[in-house]
Design goal:
Layout: H1 2-41, E1 44-45, E2 53-54, H2 58-64, H3 67-100, H4 105-117, H5 120-130, H6 137-144, H7 159-184, H8 188-196, H9 201-229, H10 233-239, H11 250-260, H12 264-292
Antiparallel strand pairs: 1-2
Helix pairs in contact: 2-12, 3-7, 3-9, 4-7, 5-10, 7-9, 7-10, 9-12, 11-12
């Protein structure tokens, strides 16, 4: 009996190893191996037309003395500071509205989530047309309201805000789904008890909904921050980093160094600087969660 049991356990373990082996192998090759390779490349002087040579910290020194890096950093931080709160707030408001609807939640959830599932490049191309100064949809609406047209992507004072607006609207569906899941996990007994005590909607929001939703809020803050620091697709399709580098992000600098100038060493160095920034910000967020996240 014991032999049959031990044999069944061994077979189960073998099948478990076989099942996870492809994913583990892919993760090791395409993530950890690539991660280690990029770290090594960041210390090399290497372009597509020359053999790699050891550069030491020269790539980091050159990048840290480049004013464009600091322009990219400032733009990325501004984008993050605007995108994260606006994205979370808009998703939260729409999630509350959908959660209050007695019927049709699935339909509206699908409507808001569809843009998130659409290919980013195709979606950005459509929005670039909508932002067009001459015949774009937004300026057609402004013209109908007897307002002057706006150069949404060509005006240095508006371009970054336009990119933020695009990312907030197109990424809102993901946040709505996450918040709806968080709202669903809040027991209705809390709301029933609050109503029996005569609590108003604002009191219920402040004392029940927001505290019990803080784990979801924390998850959204962390993931949205990481996404915002790595923004690239909207920048590349909508503005190419312009006008006058006002929308240039860190990831756009990585792209230009690696795939335009073929300086793979400096591109990897910028990527690791970005990794360090994201790591520090994430650690700070994890430390601060103890002060405001309620896990019940």
């Amino acid at each position: 009996m014991k032999r049959k049991h031990s044999r069944a356990v061994r077979e189960e373990r073998v099948w478990a190893v076989v099942s996870v082996a492809p994913m583990t192998l892919g993760l090791g090759v395409f993530f950890y191996l690539a991660l280690g390779a990029s770290f090594v490349i960041s210390f090399l002087n290497w372009s597509a037309l020359s053999s790699p040579t050891w550069a030491g910290l020269a790539n980091y020194a050159r990048i840290l003395s480049d004013p464009l890096l600091y322009t990219s950093l400032i733009n990325t931080f501004l984008f993050t500071l605007l995108n994260v709160p606006l994205g979370i707030l808009s998703a939260f408001v729409f999630a509350l509205a959908l959660n209050a609807i007695p019927k049709g939640k699935g339909f509206f959830r699908l409507v808001y989530f569809l843009p998130y599932l659409t290919l980013p490049v195709a979606l950005a191309i459509v929005w670039r047309w909508m932002f067009n100064k001459s015949f774009g949809l937004f300026n057609i609406v402004l013209k109908a309201m007897s307002l002057a047209p706006v150069d949404w992507l060509g005006d240095r004072n508006v371009a970054l805000l336009s990119v933020v607006f695009y990312t907030v609207v197109t990424g809102m569906g993901y946040g709505i789904v996450i918040f709806l899941a968080g709202l669903k996990n809040i027991s209705k007994e809390y709301y029933e008890a609050a109503r029996m005590d005569g609590a108003g909607p604002f009191t219920v929001m402040r004392a029940i909904t927001l505290p019990l939703l803080t784990p979801t809020l924390f998850y959204m803050v962390v993931t949205n921050t990481i996404f915002a620091f790595q923004v690239f697709d909207p920048i590349y399709i909508l503005t190419k980093g312009g006008p006058l580098n006002t929308t240039r992000s860190i990831m756009f600098s990585v792209y230009e160094e690696g795939f335009r100038y073929f300086r793979f060493g400096t591109a990897s160095a910028i990527a690791w600087i970005l990794f360090a920034i994201i790591m520090v910000v994430t650690v700070v967020q994890l430390r601060l969660q103890k002060k405001w996240v309620y896990y019940g």
